């Protein structure tokens, strides 16, 4: 029996293409052929004093094809040790035999499938002519979200805000390229009114995006705030927007961006208009007018992991003979 292969972060970075992964996700969401049990969510302590970290266990399978499971930890204090907050591993198996096909570095997989999912949603919800983006957050997801959005919309100007201005300046220099210029900003409200797309990827417990600042036609992509007591947008932002989610159950129950305004009565459940599978299957058209403010809230879905794992495994299988397969 063949030993399972090991797919590294370096391999993923070198062979990933957003346009390819986004289309695979579009097809998978539309077909809804993958079984997704409820994911397991546990809080634990990185120290003995406080339960400040999270363990996620995310299984998924398609009968007769693939079975996968992802283990992810989210440790907000990792930045103090210069480590990404999200750590993870993915196990891809043959659903017919249970044989392990691949062990995949889960942190890179998670970043790229998360960004690809945001871009997939933006392909239905953002202004087709959107050429500007405000990225709120300077963590490991920020470069991926910028690149993913720029793969579905003609982004030319990117503004980057982070709690550490020096980090924002450094990252802006690293990310500027021939397609788009990245400019650091010290205040969110200095540019938020003039951009077409706003993407947030933070671990903030307090709103960073205020509805008073949102302008007609903007698209708001909320990626952080993965717990019911965390939020990146305020009540007014949610009230003003046409709301879409990756999945109803996950986004409504797990993130404070929707859970809190629903509990307060600011919005009602029927104001969450569609989940991503309905957009991809053509059951909802997405953006309804040029002036509409759209909001997409994601918390992650195991279908995305399985699709990404298949994608990277197929990349491995189709490499030219002699090309190195394992990175650092």
From TrEMBL:
Keywords: Lyase
Gene3D superfamilies: NAD(P)-binding Rossmann-like Domain, ornithine cyclodeaminase, domain 1
Gene Ontology terms: biological process: carboxylic acid metabolic process
SUPFAM superfamilies (alphabetical): NAD(P)-binding Rossmann-fold domains
EC code: 4.3.1.12
GO molecular function: ornithine cyclodeaminase activity; oxidoreductase activity
Protein's name in the database: Ornithine cyclodeaminase
Organism: Flavilitoribacter nigricans (strain ATCC 23147 / DSM 23189 / NBRC 102662 / NCIMB 1420 / SS-2) (Lewinella nigricans)
